[in-house]
Amino acid sequence: MVSLTSVTFSPVQKRDLTLVAILRGVSYLGDAIALIALYLRLAHGANASWAIASLSIAASLPLVVLSPISGFIIDHTPTLKRLLTILCFCEGVVCVGIGLWHGRIVTIGLMALLSCFVAFSFPGYSALVPKIAGEENITAANSSMQSVQGIAAVAGPGLGGLLVGLLGQSWPLYFDAISFGLGAIATLMLVTDRRPDPGVERPTKGERDLGSGMRVLFADRVLRPLVIMFVVFLLALVMINVAEVFFITKTLHSSALMYGLVGTSFGVGNIVGAVASAKIKQHDVSLARAALLGSIVVALFVGAIGLVEHVDYLFPILVVVGVAVGVVNVTLTTLMTVRTPEAQRGRMFAASNAVFTSAEILGTVFGGLILTIVAPRTVFQIAGTVTTIFVLVFGPFALRATRSAKNFEMKSLDA
User: pLDDT of 175-185, one tens digit each?
Assistant: First the structure.
């Protein structure tokens, strides 16, 4: 929460941003705890790997499929605060159901239903944050949200394993349900709301409006190369996530404890990078430079991991990688926000979430396939090399576009 105090916010802005940061942090923590419990639930019995894979697909696919509809509804709902409150309540009810019924098919089906609600709530809160913060403070607000998410990601797996060990596999789901209930209460307490401008964009445009989120991402000359680059960036990160456990436990002959600690070092670095990003000027050129610098650092250090001969060397490397990833996340999110008309941000966030989720799904598949052909060490080298090439190819396009578009104010695509 460092970034909230580094920028001058009004009392209402500070109050609402603190509420959103807390509710999102508790929600992320609840999700991380619940996910560990579900993985442990499905890890026993026949075809456990297929069950876990199905759970991952159920959690991801609705975010992609529903993105045009969810973004459209977020941008045209009469009151976003009320919609988000209802979504939080529905998510909590589904979590209670997952805690009560343990069958594989029911668990996977309810996870898909939960993800359907998340497909609406994620772009909804993402669009609400800049409305609360004001256009000039979006970087600081995004820094706070990413920091809270990073803290939850670090604490969640350990707490999830502890709760399962102490209380069984249902209580982590009930904790997640409580987190959504608290989120509903916190959302109701917000002063700021997001409502559509009655003079801009009428829903009668129908089908054309449903695709405007993708048009924002890929028609904008600054965002297009950065989004393409970030897709490859995500593919590489997910590929190495698949290979990491085998690299540490098999190639480096280390323990499961060390595997967990290495992941924690990345998470700590990610928090540091997100907090530090609040200091970056909210200017297209500054944001693009920071995103590109962070990407090249990740690419080079990921490739370097493939040369490591002892697990101890992974700790400083992954702290640096975590810092760079935190910077990239904040700066890219801010760039996408400031270069999108306010009235279309729900659709833009839904579309970007769909694109990036698709990249994560493909990265998981590619990582698994490549591991059947090459050693885990080679996966890191491939990921680092490919990402470096894409940053060097698409980075200059993005920088040239930001320099020539310094004073460019994006018009609504529906105007």
Answer: 999 999 999 99
- Supply 215's token pair: 């048009």
Q: Look at the domain 6-193 and name its fold.
A: Growth Hormone; Chain: A; (1.20.1250)
| Tally of residues, the chain | 415
The model carries a pTM of 0.87
pLDDT in tens, 70-79: 999 999 898 9
Residue 348's pLDDT is 92
The CATH class of the 208-407 domain is mainly alpha
Between CA 395 and CA 389 the distance in angstroms is: 10
Domain layout of the chain by residue ranges: 6-193, 208-407
Residue found under tokens 């350990």: 158
Q: Each residue of 299-346: pLDDT tens digit?
A: 999 999 989 989 899 999 999 999 999 999 999 999 999 988 888 899
Pairwise CA distance, residues 257 & 38, whole Å: 20
Per-residue pLDDT of 48-76, as tens digits, reads: 767 877 888 899 999 999 998 999 999 98
